[in-house]
Design brief:
single chain, 304 residues, mainly alpha, 14 helices, globular
């Protein structure tokens, strides 16, 4: 009798006698079912809370203001893009969208490069005062933004950067840098030192080792922190509203606030809903396109 046949006979006898091991992976207790069902119900309710207002805003962006008040939850009578044209051209959202892309794009690139360099040095090298610098970065996460508005105002004014896009970029980088360093520190710390030493043996310099060896290995963490920084910088409101009062340099968050409050009760709600969609669509696209990198970075971080 072969080994497989003997094993099958043994398992069959054990099942008949009731002593066969049970498959724990298929066993589901009542508490597991309750927790799973409750979680699914909560997630379904939360999804409706998020999706329904967004869907209502999307439908409203194709309606006129009287139609929105007459039939707020109905489908538009005519599907046209007049509201988007009015928001983009008449209300200058095209220029504000360009300003936002410039400010967020440049600030994101700078903060990712500077943050990765700083996190790499703090995580991989034992330098005098490195721990102090790291804890100062952590302290920056606890500093409320509104407390720095007045000092920032006078600093940017003294530098001649008040009410300018470069001044806003520098401010964005300064406030996003502590979070970037804190997030990437653990990723660089967990990378194997053998690979870094192998690069040194092959004659690679510190710059080449960082950009061609270590930085690509931290790609999941870079992708995750880039997405979160993009979301935070794109939706930033307090900093631009305080440090950027020149209407020609307005970003989208300022434009939305100005649009909503400019005409009182005579707001063109159809154009305002279109402006809201113009503001949130880039954020949705970025998240949909890069959600796999975000999920992969979270799973890799927890596995380490």
């Amino acid at each position: 009798m072969s080994t497989d046949t003997r094993a099958a006979v043994t398992i069959d006898k054990a099942r008949r006698s009731g002593s066969a091991p049970r498959d724990r992976t298929t066993k589901s207790t009542t508490s597991d079912k309750v927790v799973g069902g409750t979680s699914h119900v909560i997630l379904a309710i939360w999804s409706l809370v998020v999706i329904l207002p967004m869907l209502w805003t999307l439908l409203g962006s194709f309606k006129t203001t009287p139609e929105i008040f007459r039939s707020p939850f109905g489908l538009p009578a005519n599907w046209n893009f007049d509201n988007y044209v009015n928001a983009w051209v008449k209300n200058n959202f095209g220029q504000m969208f360009l300003n936002t892309v410039i400010v967020v794009g440049v600030a994101l690139v700078l903060v990712m490069i500077l943050g990765a360099m700083c996190a790499y040095v703090l995580a991989r090298f034992s330098l005098p005062g490195s721990r102090v610098i790291y804890y100062l970065m952590l302290a920056g996460l606890t500093f409320p933004v509104f407390l720095a508005i007045v000092p920032l105002f006078f600093i940017l004014q003294g530098m001649g950067l008040l009410n300018t896009l470069p001044g806003l970029i520098i401010t964005y980088v300064a406030f996003a840098l502590p979070f970037t360093v804190f997030f990437l520190f653990s990723f660089f710390k967990s990378l194997p030192y053998e690979i870094q030493e192998a690069a040194y043996v092959d004659g690679a310099s510190e710059w080449r080792t960082f950009f061609q060896v270590m930085l690509p290995m931290a790609k999941p963490g870079m992708a995750a922190v880039a997405i979160m920084n993009f979301l935070g910088l794109w939706n930033q409101f307090l900093l631009p509203i305080s440090l950027n009062t020149d209407q020609s340099n307005y970003v989208l968050s300022q434009g939305m606030a100005s649009f909503a409050s400019a005409a009182g009760y005579q707001v063109d709600f159809g154009a305002m809903f279109a402006a809201v969609m113009i503001t949130i669509i880039p954020v949705l696209l970025v998240y949909v396109l890069f959600q796999r990198q975000l999920q992969g970075s979270v799973s890799q971080g927890t596995s380490k």
